[in-house]
Structure formats: C-alpha cells, structure tokens
Amino acid sequence: MATAPEGGKLIIIAIDLDRDAYEMEFPIIKKANIEHKINFIQSS
Question: Which one, 4, 9, 12, 15, has the greatest CB density within 10 A?
C-alpha cells in the first residue's frame, strides 16, 4: 500500500507474515535509497 499524507511525501507500508522476504529484498531497497520510506509491519 502506498499513501501520500498532506506533506506530499510517499510512504510505503508493507505488511507480511514473514519478515524474511522483506530482509531478502532489503539490499535492493537500500540501493534504491528508499529504506526511509518503507514501514514494514509483521502480521501474526
């Protein structure tokens, strides 16, 4: 899900049961310099 609050900054919210998939892709996210825009939530 992506949302743009009133400030206009894009925030990405990632919800998944398994954090491993996010951590596996994190080097790509970091290389794209967007790690500060992603809020990962691990669901149970």
Answer: 12
